[in-house]
């Protein structure tokens, strides 16, 4: 018997895959709760799980960031606009995530935190400050941990299997690293506020160091990668 706390954004594509995992844990006798936004509370509680709502995160601002026309139209054609959205969503909400979760963990005392791959407070801060195991729960059918067997995630580039596809992956990877440079610097500054060391790798590389990383797919659909840490497990679709 163990207690599992799921930390997820209140968007349907983030909530429902984690509910599938939560049911599998509950069927095995474990206790499960969720920390998420108010928009998802009825869904979570309707599935029979306890829900701790976000208190510090400004949910109205979160929805403006994610779904305003200015931010959401053709994001890949406007990379700097996309970087702004991701910074506001992934990084600027971390202090609020941590404040809420510290209170939840003090009262409910989970044994494991299972966190949405885009919910970074548990990975970047709580894993070390609260000494709690944190598992990555991805909602996308591919592993975001960087490595030589796959091009930068999310662009649909071909597998790096010959000189020109490897060159393409390296060039796009260099451009992606340049765009993401400020992410790592900001994440390190946030960690410093909690007495933690700066990151020595990209954020998604750091996520690959968590004890468990669940990918809702099969290896063959994800470039049949052989460069991933042993923590990464392909678990098939989460329905």
List the helices and strands and how they pair.
Blueprint: E1 3-7, H1 12-27, E2 31-36, H2 41-46, E3 50-53, H3 59-67, H4 69-72, H5 79-91, H6 94-108, E4 112-116, H7 121-129, E5 134-137, H8 163-193, H9 203-207, E6 212-215, E7 232-234
Parallel strand pairs: 1-2, 1-4, 2-3, 4-5, 5-6, 6-7
Helix pairs in contact: 5-8, 6-7
Characterization of the model:
- There is one protein chain.
- This protein has helices at about 10-25, 40-45, 60-65, 70, 80-90, 95-110, 120-130, 165-195, 205, and strands at about 5, 30-35, 50-55, 110-115, 135, 210-215, 230-235.
- It has about 240 residues and is α/β, with parallel strands linked by helices.
- The chain has a seven-stranded parallel beta sheet, sandwiched between helices.
SSE string: EHEHEHHHHEHEHHEE
Proportion in helices: 40-55%
Distance from N terminus to C terminus (CA atoms, Å) equals 24 Å
- Estimate the mean pLDDT confidence: 91
Structural class: alpha/beta
Uncertain runs are none
Instruction: Label the overall shape.
Output: globular
* Strand composition percent: 5-15%
Number of helices, counting only DSSP H or I runs of 4 residues or more: 9
Strand order of the largest sheet: 3-2-1-4-5-6-7
- Using the CA coordinates, give the radius of gyration: 18 Å
Largest sheet: 7 strands, parallel
Number of strands: 7
